[in-house]
Structure formats: C-alpha cells, structure tokens
Amino acid sequence: EAGVTQFPSHSVIEKGQTVTLRCDPISGHDNLYWYRRVMGKEIKFLLHFVKESKQDESGMPNNRFLAERTGGTYSTLKVQPAELEDSGVYFCASSQQLAQTELFFGEGSRLTVL
Amino acid sequence: AQSVSQHNHHVILSEAASLELGCNYSYGGTVNLFWYVQYPGQHLQLLLKYFSGDPLVKGIKGFEAEFIKSKFSFNLRKPSVQWSDTAEYFCAVTPSGGYQKVTFGTGTKLQVIP
Question: What are the distances in angstroms from CA B109 to CA A69, B10, B20, B88?
Fold first, then answer.
C-alpha cells in the first residue's frame, strides 16, 4: 500500500514568488491534514479536509495560503506571495477516521524562502 | 485550546542506558495522547497511543508511556536504548470525541551513542 506522498521534497524560492505543494494521501483516506514546522518549533496544525470540504482551517496563517482538495483526492497548498517567515517543513497527513486514530504522514516538503 | 510541552529538547545517551522523555499537556477535558517518532530521513510515524483504559501503554520497539492524569503527563520510556533509536520524538494530544485537531509538542531529539 502506498503511503502519503508529497511533492516537491524541497523548494527554494525568492520572496514574492509563488510555490505550490502537493500531497497525495493514502487511497481511501477521507481525512487530509496539513501541518507546518518552522525550525526548532512545534509541528503546527494548518488545516483539515474531510473529502473535498475544509473541516477546520483555523491554523492557516493568512490569506497568502490557499489549500484545495479537488475531488477529495490529492491536495495542494499554495503560498502566494511567499515571505521569509513561510520557510519551514510542510507535512501532510491522512487518516481513515477522525483524528483520534493514527495519522499517516508524508515525508514533508521543505520550503526555503530567500 | 490544548497545548503540549516537551521539556527535553536534546538528549544524548549511551547505548543500553534507560530513557525517559517528558511530556505534559494542557487541557481541561478528556484527551487522547500520542507519541510519534521521526527517524533520520524518514516520515513521522506512530510510536504508541493512549485513548482509554490501562494508563500504561506499550508501543513498537520496546517503548512504553504512562498516562498520569493528575499530572497531565504522558512520559515516554524505554529501559535500554539502542543506536537505532536515534530520532526525534514528538508528543501529541487531541481532545476526545468528534473531530479535534492533533496538537504536537516541539519535539525531543534523541542521540544514542554506540
């Protein structure tokens, strides 16, 4: 069974540019989550999809971040325009049931904004 | 809102030493608790979880954790560490019932010296 896959694994962009991160959850997992970790700090919740609907987007930093999950399959997280403080590792996770069960994580997408 | 504190940021142990990583959470109600581990170059994966019942839970690779409700703690233990346990360990909490986001601590880097 394929795990959660994320692309790209590493992206280096300049301030003001746009980056789109992609996450493919485990097949059949309705729940998809985005988290972010800034160096040395906690893994911070960004948002949660149930199928194609946003269940909770309370962690999204500001309107420069846009997440979509068309058709309830893969998800994209776009940062436009990117700022220096957006640098970090963006993790995607999926689960079959609610958050009380195990989250399956991807390897993360490292974003560096120069 | 819930929060998690991991007081040890970096722990260095020799092989065969015993391990205890501290985790305290803040939340007034019933919680589910998790420890996740990230080995070098790999994705985050579940080590163990507590939902209810016996407060001493056993996970993979000989790890265990004890939920002490009165102390709001969920410390991770292993009697004898191995070099292969070198990794970063994250404690996480979510309120029980329905959908609630999983909140992570800042992580503890464990380095085991052969």
Answer: 33, 5, 12, 4
* A56 chain-B contacts, CB cut-off 8 A: 99, 101
10-residue averages of pLDDT along chain B (114 residues): 91 97 93 94 93 93 96 97 97 84 93 95
Identity of the residue numbered A24: D
Phi and psi dihedrals of A4, rounded to 5? -75, 130
Beta carbons of B45 and A41 less than 8 Å apart:
no
Alpha-carbon distance of A97 to B76, in angstroms, equals 25
Segment A11-21 mean pLDDT = 97
**Contact yes or no for B99 and A107 at CB 8 A:** no
